[in-house]
Amino acid sequence: MNRSDFQELAELHLLHAKALLDAELYSGAYYICGYVIECALKACICKKTNQFDFYPSPDESRAAWSHDFERLIKVAKLEEEFDAARAGDPELEVNWDNVVKSWSPDSRYEQRTQREARDLQAASRRSGPRGVLMLKTVLVETDIQDGERVIAALEKSGLNITAAFWSPSEDQDDWFLVAVSSDVPERGGTEVYKQAHAVLDNLEIGSARSHRSWWDRIKILSPSTLIYRRLKQRAGTGDRPVRPGWELDSYIYKLT
After folding, report:
1. pLDDT tens-digit profile of 150-193?
2. CATH number for the domain including 229?
3. Which residues neighbour 210 within 8 Å (Cβ) at sequence distance 6 or greater?
4. Nearest in space to 17 (alpha carbons), one of 84, 112, 90
5. Within a 10 A sphere around the Cβ of 136, how many other Cβ atoms?
6. What is the CATH number of the domain that holds 88?
7. Which of 11, 177, 208, 209 could form a disulfide with 129 if both were Cys (CB 3.0 to 4.6 A apart)?
8. Is the pTM of this model over 0.70?
9. Mean pLDDT, the chain, as a whole number?
């Protein structure tokens, strides 16, 4: 097992949990959601090992083979980062203490309600298939509100935006605001970015959560781009618009 294996398993378990929720099988959905978080944490552990391989047997590291989330956080050397994220995000603090920590493999013997299953699914979505996003730079409510203002300003300037969403960056442990526009292939990326740059220069908005400017956090892409096509496929809505909110590991404003 290596980092990619755990990332793929986390994503697969997230899809399984969604299918179980849609089928109103709430106890099964709750149980599977815990393994989304476990696999995401073990992917983080692999990031610290030689060639991103997981420990081949429990004798190598019993803590790494644990199902206990707090032990896995410690092995992944994420304690300080996670504590800082919790201190800066009350929602994360509540989710962790009241929702995530109550899960264990013994949950397979327990009956769980719709509310419990959906709460854990929401927390596991923020863990994400490509690492534990709840343990990295946290996308907070102010980011979401400011991103909505940015997209609205770009549309008001005349840009044709068919999709807009926050997407995680695996390598930089951060988030990017993605705008998908048919203007990119039609007018060319240079012209589109010039227009967007003028809009952002005149937009009064708070600085981004990280030290980088808003300009460095935005990508304006063609509808043919892989990140957009993959998100549409994973959202599973066909040609129907997606409602605003969290979908797997992305926060969506619009997706058509």
Report:
1. 999 999 999 999 999 998 765 445 678 999 999 999 999 889 98
2. 3.30.460
3. 137, 174, 217
4. 112
5. 23
6. 1.20.120
7. 11
8. no
9. 80
